[in-house]
Design a protein that fits this description.
Layout lengths: L10 E6 L3 E2 L5 E2 L12 H12 L3 E6 L1 H5 L9 H15 L4 E6 L4 E2 L2 E2 L7 H15 L5 E4 L10 H16 L7 E4 L1 H4 L9 H4 L12 E6 L18 H15 L3 E6 L5 H16 L4 E9 L14 E3 L2 E3 L2 H7 L5
Parallel strand pairs: 1-4, 1-12, 4-5, 5-8, 8-9, 9-10, 10-11, 11-12
Antiparallel strand pairs: 2-3, 6-7, 13-14
Helix pairs in contact: 4-5, 9-10
Length: 327
């Protein structure tokens, strides 16, 4: 069971992206595999595992992309096949691999279970994905990236429950990540989304493997769009969250954090990660955003390593804070 591996914050990693859907359904990024015409994402992941001791990667993908824009349809053999190449490259490293539906609780701007796709349509997606990956104990199911501006948190919890029930129908033991509203904010979780998400359970009534999914950036507006960091988030977010998790006998995974390759981000991100390490009874790990296909030259939060011959050189932030040898 993956939860037993949470020693000294054992779940570190980086994110590698395949085309994902924002609120409008617009796709971004390039498939990060040489075989698909993109960068060498497989080589990046091998480097991160071998040289940096990482053991988890988050693999974002758009719902529309997987179904070729056919809501309620079956996995598209071409697009889902390309995504599977990325998943298999991740699994080949021996790391845990998060299947991350990167849709912000939406399909083309319409909210799941609240005027948009039905819970049954959402559950159908997850039944198909869980069936495809049920045989691998290194797969983690990330139900949804960063829901936000969801009108009714209890209805959203119902949507999350529908996904959990669908997954558990075929995949009994893998970890499932439960996302909240407010961009699944670590700071907001205890008082806003958390109480509703605590009611989500496995079909047998247990909470085994159901992990609270949180994100937190360190820049001036918590947007992850600035190269300078201004906070370590400890007193405002992670200490209150740790207290809440212990009170409710639950655990969380910080599946998205990061900053610019600057001195301020090195200071604050390293401090944040140190706190997570020190509270590994409730925090299973952290995942840095973002590697894969994001250009170090144009993307402010790039964690893409540079290849020199047969070796890789990490960004300064990865070297200082995110590589497990640094934590």
């Amino acid at each position: 069971m993956i939860l037993t591996l949470a020693t000294a914050l054992g779940l570190a990693g980086a994110t590698a992206a395949l085309p994902t859907a924002r609120d409008t359904g617009v796709q971004f990024a390039t498939p990060p595999l040489s075989a698909l015409g993109g960068p060498d994402g497989a080589g990046q992941m091998q480097h991160f595992v071998k040289d940096d001791g990482m053991n988890m990667f988050r693999l974002p993908v758009g719902w529309q992309y997987l179904l070729n824009n056919q809501l309620g349809g079956t996995l598209d053999s071409g697009n889902a096949g390309k995504y599977d190449q990325l998943v298999q490259a991740c699994l080949a490293t021996g790391a845990y691999c998060i299947i991350d539906i990167h849709n912000y609780a939406r399909w083309n701007g319409q909210i799941i279970g609240q005027g948009g796709p039905t819970n049954d349509q959402f559950a159908n997606l997850w039944t198909q994905l869980a069936t495809k990956y049920a045989s691998s104990d290194k797969i983690v199911f990330g139900i949804m990236n960063e829901p936000h501006d969801v009108p009714d948190i209890n209805k959203w919890a119902d949507s999350v429950q529908a996904a959990v029930t669908a997954i558990r129908g075929v995949a009994k033991k893998q970890m499932i990540l439960l996302p909240g509203n407010d961009w699944t904010s670590a700071q907001a979780m205890p008082t806003k989304s958390g109480p509703a998400l605590l009611k989500v359970k496995n079909p047998d009534g247990s909470f085994d493997g159901l992990i609270i999914d949180v994100h937190k950036y360190l820049d001036q507006d918590n947007s992850g769009t600035h190269t300078e960091c201004v906070t370590d988030n400890i007193s405002t977010a992670f200490q209150p969250l740790a207290t809440w998790l212990r009170q409710n006998k639950r655990q969380a995974l910080n599946t998205e954090t990061g900053g610019g390759n600057t001195a301020s981000c090195q200071k604050y991100l390293c401090d944040q990660i140190q706190f997570l390490n020190q509270n590994a009874d409730v925090f299973l790990g952290y995942v840095g955003w973002s590697a894969g296909a994001f250009s170090p030259a144009t993307y402010e939060l790039s964690e893409v390593p540079t290849k020199n011959g047969n070796s890789w050189t990490d960004s300064s932030l990865v070297k200082a804070c995110i590589a497990r040898k640094s934590s």
